[in-house]
Specification:
Blueprint (H helix, E strand, L loop, with lengths): L1 E5 L3 H13 L3 E5 L2 H10 L4 E4 L8 H10 L5 E6 L4 H10 L3 E4 L4 H15 L6 E4 L2 E4 L4 E4 L2 E3 L3 H12 L7 H8 L10 H14 L7 E4 L3 E4 L3
Parallel strand pairs: 1-2, 1-3, 3-4, 4-5
Antiparallel strand pairs: 6-7, 7-8, 8-9, 10-11
Helix pairs in contact: 2-3, 6-8
């Protein structure tokens, strides 16, 4: 999944970006409100993490403009402003969640996972596709109760397909949600990950879950 982090504290950005990437998120960064607004309007992010005290364009104004332009991306405000009236204002303007600094990193991750589940209308952290089980919290995967070990990007591809089970996902969608704009990988790498997933998940099974829809994309086929 792809996150836009709009934050001017470079030390915090470095720490958060590293941690989120280790959790398989792709992360784009904006250090001021104007850049953040541009990226948010022109890219399909799953979640935006937004500081309020930003140069050039403050967070509340940025948030208002995004909602005015019908950008529906879930937005988590991450700020040092902890007064109740600030939280109320941020949520009323259109934020989906509000977390104050200093914060516990595990709580931030939990809130991000909850926003993703809300986006795809999932209540449980376990995604079930037939015999396949995906724990979106621990990133563990099982088929027929046998654990399958995946590399981080393999897991990211599978999770995105799972959130869109029984839907055709084209290559552009996969690329836009799994890679940040600075990534220098080629689009052919998606075929590599799909092949790896097939070998790990569908090999020696009668029911194939990962389908290629010729000329359109891929589908994780559930019941």
């Amino acid at each position: 999944m792809r996150i836009l982090l709009i934050e001017d504290n470079k030390a915090l950005v470095k720490s958060l970006k590293k941690g989120l990437e280790e959790e398989t998120f792709a992360v784009d960064v904006a250090y001021d409100g104007e850049e953040g607004l541009f990226l948010a309007v022109n890219n399909p992010y799953d979640i935006i993490i937004l500081d309020l005290m930003l140069p050039k364009l403050d967070g509340i104004t940025l948030l208002r403009r995004l909602r005015h332009q019908k950008i529906q991306t879930h937005i988590l405000i991450l700020t040092a402003r902890d007064a109740p009236e600030e939280k109320v204002k941020g949520l009323d303007v259109g934020a989906d969640d509000y977390l104050t600094k200093p914060f516990h990193y595990d709580e931030l991750l939990a809130r991000l996972r909850a926003l993703l589940r809300r986006q795809y209308q999932k209540k449980e952290p376990i995604l079930s596709i037939g015999e396949l089980k995906i724990n979106t919290q621990s990133h563990q995967v099982w088929r027929n109760a046998q654990e399958i070990i995946l590399q981080p990007k393999e897991y990211a591809v599978l999770e995105y397909l799972a959130y869109h089970q029984n839907e055709i996902v084209n290559r552009t969608q996969l690329w836009d949600h799994l890679y940040d704009w600075q990534d220098e990988s080629t689009s052919n790498i998606l075929d590599v990950y799909i092949n790896h997933l097939r070998n790990k998940i569908d090999k020696d099974t009668r029911q194939k879950l990962i389908l290629t829809i010729r000329g359109e994309g891929y589908m994780l086929k559930g019941d």
